[in-house]
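Hi team,

Filling in the usual template for the complex we talked about on Friday. All components are listed, including any nucleic acid strands or ligand strings, so the model treats them as one assembly.

SUBMITTER: L.P.
PURPOSE: interface mapping
COMPONENTS: two
RESIDUES: 612
SEQUENCES:
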Amino acid sequence: MAKTILELNNIEKVYGEKVKTKVLHGINLMFSEHSFNAIIGQSGSGKSTLLNIMGTLDNPSNGYVEIDGTRTDRMNKKALAKLRNSTIGFIFQYHYLLPEFTARENILMPHRITQDKVPKAVSDYADELMEVVGIADVKNNLAGEMSGGQQQRTAIARALLNKPRVILADEPTGSLDSETTDRVYELLKKINKTYGTTFIVITHDRRVAEKTDRIIQLEDGFIEMDVTT
Amino acid sequence: MISLKIAARFLFSSKTQTALITIGIAIGVSVQVFIGSLIQGLQNDLIDTTIGNRSQITIQSTQEGELLEDDPQRLDALQNYDSRITVVSRVVESPANIIGDTNAQVLLRGLNFEESDPIYNVDNNITEGRLPESDQEIVLGTTLMEKRNLSVGDSVNILVDPEEGLSAAMTISGVFDLGSASINDTWILTSLENAKALLDVNGLSAYEMQVDDVFDSAAIQESLQNTYPELKVSEWQAQNQDLLSGLEGQSISSTMIQVFVMVSVVLGISSVLAITVLQKSRQLGILKAMGITDGKASLIFLSEGLILGVMGAVLGVLFGLFLAFMFTQFAVNPDGTPVVALYINPPFIALSAVIAASASVLAALIPARKSAKLSVIEVIRNG
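RESULT (copied from the run log):
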């Protein structure tokens, strides 16, 4: 059996002080290393909240997250920042590149925020990633000078730079057309196979979800369905 | 380093905003440099006019009218007493009268012109004729010459002791203008030896001194007084309290202006950078999601403050010097000399620049704290 890389234990999330809204109800999930998982559900079902909690960007109201066997609720802010930098890669719906930097600089940023020098191996890996995601010819363009698809592929390459064990992607193709969407998912699958990276992807597109190893469906903060395809 | 690089990119990406805030700092620094140079120039001018051509420390006998021994060893000792003492000049002086149609009260002063030159600079201020070279020669001030209707080469009778009737005929070898109406009206200068002979004395009335930094005079006076308790050592500051309080008032007002200018610069930078944190909150969110620490996120804004401060300071110093230059070119007396000779003091200018840069970093502290507190989830949620 594959090793568990990420585990959610009885995760609950409540928003609001006076009027409390519970968006996650005791979620328990385990994700195996190298797996490709999809989380689907209606808008407001709690998908993004769950993903943000997995990525330590948000805290659960109850329960805890374990990443590679370590409870994140017991880590301080600095340790969490290090964890996000080295173990987790994020891909968001709105690519979130730094517009002041070029594609290549954006890709190298996860390395550079922890170390000033970029060793040749890292630089070469960035070039390799750009080849893999197909943006080598626009590597010196500022983020704003690229198409939406190119920006999203840059964001994917950036998420992969520090060779994270887990990639958390929130509607990574939400702002892309269907043709580009297919290409991006093919790319993610290829990366999953090539580098063994675990993917947890939120999508509202059932067609996309069906191409993954496992589909988890959320509804009103509960797990409605959890199937291995 | 990455914080500095991100800061530079952030600033470079908002060129107009960066240019405006840099100009704001530059204007603050330039005002500081200009006002500081102006006030310091004004003060130096005032000090120079008041005591530049005067004895700053004077050693006399404790008994009024009593003379000091003209001892070469003492002169030597005083000259080597303290490296801050630049001039020691011997003087013998006495009230006197010019005998004529109307008697004029004057002060006969015997100087060794070589020794006293750094103080009075009589040689350079001779407007007509020359310094006394032989016995019985004197120089008079321009005002006295005009009043008595005298000319170079004229002979005047000088009465030095009315009781004894001690008088002598002296020849005017030249006319001086020492820049003070009262000195030009009352001083008669002659050589030390001639004055001694005329007054029939061997001693000295005083040793007159100047020091390198005029404000060291009090400390040197105190030390000299301790060394020579049998003599009376006086210095200019004790006798010019009004001038000193005037100078102090000027310094305080100058400092106040500079402080308020700097405060407004700090507030300006702080508010602009606070807005920048909001503008860049999306980028900060991305960086935090990527794992940048709160400390490094804060450093981005401190670096922005530093970059703005350094650019503003450099530009401000250049602009301030340009202002100063224009002032000396356009604010001039009829003879073409500047109304106030500005004092360009490099350490002061460097200090102004360093203060501006430090103030800018200080101003960035609040935005830096704000950026550290920025919640990444808020940014992600709000897109």
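MY TAKE: Chain A touches chain B through 28 residues (CB under 8 Å). Residues 94-163 of chain A form one domain.

Thanks, L.
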